[in-house]
Amino acid sequence: MKAVQFDQYGDLDVLYLGELPAPSAGAGQVAVDVRAAGINRGGSSIRSGALKARFPLTFPSGQGWDAAGVVSALGPGVDSVAVGDQVACWGPQHASQAEQVALSAGQVVRRPPAVPWEVAGPLYLVGTTAYAAVQAGDTVAVSAAAGSVVVQVLRRLGAHVIGIASEANHAWLRSVGATPVLHGKGLEGRLRETAPQGMDAFINCFGDGYCQLAVDLGISPQRINTVADFAAAQKLGVKAEASAQASSSPTVSEIAEMVASGEVVIPVPASSPLAPVCEAYPE
Asked: CA distances (Å), 151 to each of 94, 142, 154, 203, in order?
């Protein structure tokens, strides 16, 4: 089979399309013919070596953690799905950007017919980050909130969401039930004014400075989750597990149904076949 590979840490130019043996389904596993796989900035950071202390790689390495496709084979002991089932899946670490994957049967859920392949592919990672952070009734601030799937899922979970974004994106945030706050200089004061009783949690989806801001706002480090600033996580003791805490079949199935019903919209700005993957991957 063909799979995205790289042999050393680096930029997009280290990527190539390699030939690998097709994976087989072992005990408790399923093999899936991939129709779509997710691309995200975390993968870029892992590939560049910026996160090698936290996510060390063995070369040659692949890319991707989530995908969607058709079950092609069952390993011994699997009866939860059948060959031919259309599924969304997660867990083939650094391996989902390939023509086939093999993974635990507990890491696949059926794809609702209303969810297109290109949406089912990245569904896991962007959706479960919200579940890992909050409880119903929490007040949660989210950086880089414009168009965010995290914001939408948080609202469906019953959280009060403060979305940090440019003014051009405030109308969209209001349309999904979030309270917009302008990013930039003076942000701490604006957040305190918007939530005078304080905030329960903070999800950093952007980068430097937001984890320290959340600590300064009095939010417990255990309620601060970053997917963008791992140095701050180590320094401040905040969480950097992204979606790990919420990685379960019931959670992913619930997100898939939210998308199928139109309650949550996962934007797909572009798609690409495997061959020119370098053109699709974010810088």
From this structure: 26, 7, 5, 10
